């Protein structure tokens, strides 16, 4: 009787019921968020050994991150037994979790205005994302909120870029350290300006050479042209050397120092050049409407990017101009390079930050208009281009706000007014 052959039993390979991890993509999520989800995944699936964690993580992390880890751990290998899971995580922590500067994050937080049409919930989420980098509760100054506010404003509102750069090198300085850095930066700038100031020793050398040649041969003084000398630093004339100037012992009426006249006093000229960055010109066509306009400015309120801005009417400029500080208030719209060159009435060039398009609301209409952003502090100026596009009634704006003075102190000939 034949023996029956035993039926072979086939056992299917064990398949893990654990759902796979998602590959990490630095463009769609942060490493901190992905790392937290990985830890939750291991806890939920009771994966506890370091070897299992490392194998599962490296298998699912994705080609881009795996190649990055191979470069970061070199010359060691990811497959080495002494390479632990915690070592791999620390490599990615260092690579992706570089701390942002606290003051820069604080500036980004306070500059995060609600955009036009943005729901409140979305704006709140954006604020909270920026808030977690500001370290308001963990900063070295978290127990001294006034010191923290002052320190942040020193960096945000500093006029010197070099001083701001020096401050941004510090991660979380206290108030005293911040003030010392600012003062040191100011002294360095003063020292640089001191070295770049023109030396006056050339006058003395030229004078000695001139005297020595005069003893050797008497030249014909009439043969010298006035452009043979540079402008005298005592009186401004170019007809003689400073050493021969008859005003060298005179006292300046402005700074009360001897050695020069008031008309070329450096302190006087520097004060005049710094009085006002951009001025406004009004042309008068009628003698009976001569008015005191220096203390008057006609302002036009406009809503720009949903922010109320009071512009000073300026018919002396074609473009509408705002300062970099007002640009921040408008939500920091995208700046494009500008090919313009602006000059104030003293002839000095005005540094332009760039130009940007903004939404202007006027008389229930929306306009997309171009404005110029300049460095430094200046009142918002409303130029002729905007005036023409918005069709502003200048007669109504000016004559309804300017009180006319009928009293004339002095009358001039018409030809002298042009």
From TrEMBL:
Gene3D superfamilies: Acid Proteases (2.40.70.10)
Protein name, as recorded: Peptidase A2 domain-containing protein
């Amino acid at each position: 009787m034949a023996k029956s052959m035993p039926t072979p039993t086939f056992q299917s390979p064990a398949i893990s019921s654990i759902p796979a991890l998602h590959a990490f993509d630095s463009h769609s999520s942060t490493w901190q968020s992905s790392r937290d989800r990985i830890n939750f995944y291991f806890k939920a699936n009771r994966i506890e050994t370091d070897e299992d964690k490392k194998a599962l993580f490296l298998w699912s992390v994705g080609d881009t991150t795996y190649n990055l880890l191979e470069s970061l751990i070199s010359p060691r290998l990811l497959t080495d037994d002494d390479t632990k899971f915690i070592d791999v995580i620390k490599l990615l922590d260092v690579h992706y979790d570089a701390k942002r500067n606290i003051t820069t994050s604080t500036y980004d937080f306070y500059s995060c205005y609600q955009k036009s049409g943005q729901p409140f919930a979305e704006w709140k989420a954006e604020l909270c994302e920026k808030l977690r980098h500001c370290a308001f509760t963990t900063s070295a100054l978290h127990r001294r909120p006034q010191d923290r506010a002052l320190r942040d404003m020193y960096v945000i509102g500093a006029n010197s870029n070099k001083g701001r750069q020096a401050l941004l090198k510090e991660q979380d300085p206290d108030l005293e350290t911040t003030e010392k850095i600012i003062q040191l930066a100011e002294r360095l700038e003063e020292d640089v300006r001191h070295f770049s100031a023109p030396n006056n020793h050339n006058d003395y050398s030229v004078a000695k050479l001139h005297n020595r040649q005069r003893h050797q041969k008497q030249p014909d003084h009439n043969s010298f042209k006035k452009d043979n000398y540079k402008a005298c630093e005592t009186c401004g004339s170019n007809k003689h050397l400073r050493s021969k100037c008859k005003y060298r012992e005179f006292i300046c009426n402005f700074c009360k120092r001897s050695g020069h006249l008031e008309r070329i006093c450096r302190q006087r000229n520097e004060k005049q050049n710094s009085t006002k960055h951009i001025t406004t010109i009004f042309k008068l066509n009628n003698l009976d409407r001569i008015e005191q306009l220096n203390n008057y400015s006609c302002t036009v309120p406009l809503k720009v990017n949903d922010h109320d801005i009071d512009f000073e009417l300026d018919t002396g400029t074609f473009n509408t101009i705002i300062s970099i500080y007002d640009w921040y208030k408008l939500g920091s719209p995208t700046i494009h390079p500008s090919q313009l060159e602006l000059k104030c009435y003293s002839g000095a060039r005005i540094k332009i930050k760039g130009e940007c398009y903004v939404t202007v609301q006027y008389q229930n209409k929306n306009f997309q208009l171009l404005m110029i952003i300049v460095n430094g502090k200046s009142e918002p100026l409303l130029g002729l281009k905007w005036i023409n596009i918005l069709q502003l009634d200048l007669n109504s704006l000016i004559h309804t706000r300017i009180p006319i003075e009928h009293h004339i102190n002095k009358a001039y000939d018409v030809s002298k007014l042009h």
